[in-house]
Specification:
Diphtheria Toxin, domain 1; single chain; 175 residues
């Protein structure tokens, strides 16, 4: 992966699915598209609750139990993000779109994640693999100050796992 790291700012409300048994709702599992074991604390977010649900359903390969999951809003105010949706950015980084979005081969995307997080980048904006037309943002927590750059909101519970239409359909306020 060659080239300098082109960054910009990003602000918005995204969402995150989390298992109700999770001890720390900020953290994703030990590996993901842009990180692997030992890379650091990482949070994956989706543009809508439905995007999050589609991603987790695909990752769990049919073992998704709606009652075990919640959704959380995440307010992002990031100053240094890489937007790999843009071809010009991918070219500067020396990575192809297929290398970022292939759900079965994560090595190149994980290398990119390690590279940019070491450079102080706070996150990567990328296309959702499971919800075309939507975006996801991965956040490298060691490079942000919680409460200033990122704020985790209220948890909501899944009320109708089959409903993925509309911005709030299928999601209700949690206990």
């Amino acid at each position: 992966m060659e080239g300098s790291i082109p960054t910009g700012s990003f602000h918005g409300t995204y969402y995150r699915t989390l298992n109700k048994a999770s001890k720390d709702p900020r953290l994703s599992g030990p590996y993901g598209r842009f990180h692997t074991v030992g890379d650091g604390d990482t949070t994956y977010t989706g543009e809508t609750p439905q995007t999050c649900e589609k991603e987790i359903r695909a990752n769990l390969k049919g073992e998704f139990v709606p009652e075990a999951w919640q959704i959380m809003s995440v307010e992002l105010a990031l100053e240094r993000v890489v937007d790999v949706r843009k071809g010009s950015v991918r070219r500067r980084l020396g990575i192809k779109k297929t290398e970022i979005l292939d759900p079965k081969r994560l090595e190149r995307a994980q290398q990119l994640g390690r590279r940019v997080r070491r450079q102080g980048v706070q996150g990567i904006i990328y296309e959702s693999v499971r919800d075309p037309g939507r975006t996801n943002v991965v956040v490298f927590l060691e490079n942000v100050v919680e409460g200033v750059h990122i704020r985790f909101g209220d948890r909501k519970r899944l009320t109708n796992a089959q409903s993925v239409e509309g911005d709030e359909a299928g999601w209700g306020r949690g206990p």
